[in-house]
Specification:
The protein is of the alpha/beta class. The protein is built from nine helices and 13 strands. About 35% of the residues lie in helices and about 20% in strands.
Length: about 325
C-alpha cells in the first residue's frame, strides 16, 4: 500500500542501534526528524533521501517530534540547505529560544534532583541540548493541524518521554510517533524540569500513561516509530507497556522491603550495572514509578535533610 511515508534509517551509537527519519512525499515535501548532528549521520540522512530522489535543498518543511539529540541533529543542516520551515511543539520554545539560560536551568534542576535522590551523579543538559540557529519556526499545540505531503495531519501533544513530544496523525490513521510508542523497547519517561519554571516538578510517567491512554483510544492503521519498524495494533503494545509498569512497581516494592529508602538506593538495587551519567536514566525510571505508586497511595516520602526517603504504605493503612 502506498502511503507516501518513506523511512530513512540512520545508525546511532545508542542501545537502540538506529533512529528513523520519515519523508512525507507531496506538497509540502516534509521531513520528520533528522538523526544525530554528526557527519556519518548526516551522510546517511542525505543518502536515504537521495534514494527517493530528494536532496536536502528540496525539503520544504521539517517536523520535530521531540527535542532529543538523535531526532533533531540534522535540522540545522537541512534548513541551511533548503530554507525549510520548522514545526515543533510549543513546549520546546524555551529550549530553542533561550539557549544558555535554559541550559543553566536544566543543569540546576538535575543537580537538585540528584541531591534529593541521594546520588552523586552529574548530568549536564549539554549531553543532549545544543545551540539552535533555527529560523522560521512554527510552534504547535495539541489539536493543531499541519499540512504535509498533500494532506492534513492532526497534532497530538503527548508529554511523557519528554516534555516536548508530539505525534502526527493523518486521516487514514497513519501516526508518526517519534519515541512516544516504540515496538521493541520501552521509552524512558525522563524526568525534566517543567516547561513553566514556576511550576512543580512534572511527573513524567503519569503524563506518559495519560498520553498513552489518549493514543490507545485512537483508531490507527499504522504507527511509524522513532526507532524500530512500523507496526500495527498499537493498543496491544500500550497494554504491554502498562503491564511492564506494574512489574517495575513490584520490583520497587521489593527493594523498599529490603531496606532501600532513597531513590539512589532503590536504583542501585534495580540497575546495579549503571555507572556514570547514565545513572540519571535509572533514577528517572525509578522516580517515575515511585510517582505512580504515590498516586495510588502505595508509598509516601519525606525529606531527611537534603535527601528524600521513601517508605511503603501497608494495605491496612490505606
Amino acid at each position: 500500500m502506498q502511503t507516501g511515508i518513506e523511512r530513512v534509517r540512520i545508525e546511532t551509537p545508542y542501545p537502540e542501534d538506529h533512529v528513523n527519519a520519515y519523508l512525507i512525499l507531496g506538497d509540502p515535501l516534509t521531513l520528520v526528524d533528522s538523526g544525530l548532528p554528526f557527519p556519518k549521520s548526516l551522510a546517511q540522512l542525505e543518502d536515504g533521501l537521495a534514494r527517493h530522489g530528494v536532496r536536502f535543498a528540496d525539503i520544504e518543511q521539517i517536523v520535530v517530534t521531540h527535542m532529543h539529540l538523535d531526532h533533531i541533529g540534522g535540522v540545522s543542516a537541512v534548513q541551511r540547505a533548503s530554507g525549510a520551515r520548522i514545526v515543533v511543539s510549543e513546549a520546546a520554545r524555551r529550549i530553542v529560544e533561550l539557549g544558555e539560560e535554559e541550559h543553566r536551568r536544566f543543569d540546576a534542576f538535575y543537580a537538585a534532583f540528584a541531591r534529593e535522590a541521594g546520588s552523586d551523579v552529574h548530568w549536564e543538559s549539554r549531553i543532549w541540548m545544543q545551540k539552535y540557529d533555527w529560523r522560521d519556526i512554527v510552534y504547535v499545540r495539541d489539536g493543531d493541524v499541519v499540512r504535509a505531503g498533500g494532506r492534513d495531519w492532526w497534532v497530538m501533544y503527548v508529554p511523557g518521554h519528554s516534555r516536548t513530544d508530539i505525534i502526527l496523525v493523518d486521516p487514514a490513521g497513519h501516526a508518526i510517533a517519534g519515541d512516544h510508542l516504540l515496538p521493541t523497547i520501552s521509552a524512558n519517561a525522563f524526568v525534566e524540569p517543567p516547561v513553566d519554571p514556576s511550576a512543580p516538578r512534572p511527573k513524567p510517567l503519569l503524563d506518559y500513561r495519560a498520553s498513552m491512554e489518549r493514543t490507545r483510544a485512537l483508531d490507527l492503521a499504522q504507527v511509524y516509530p522513532g526507532h524500530g519498524d512500523p507496526f500495527g495494533d498499537h493498543r496491544a503494545l500500550i497494554d504491554r507497556r502498562f503491564a511492564e509498569h506494574e512489574s517495575r512497581c513490584a520490583q520497587i516494592r521489593e527493594a523498599l522491603a529490603e531496606g532501600a529508602t532513597t531513590l539512589a538506593e532503590i536504583t542501585r538495587r534495580l540497575f546495579p550495572k549503571l555507572e556514570g551519567p547514565v545513572v540519571m536514566l535509572g533514577l528517572s525510571e525509578v522516580q517515575g514509578h515511585l510517582d505512580l505508586m504515590e498516586s495510588r497511595g502505595e508509598v509516601i516520602s519525606a525529606m531527611d535533610g537534603q535527601v528524600r526517603r521513601w517508605t511503603r504504605v501497608t494495605a491496612s493503612a490505606r
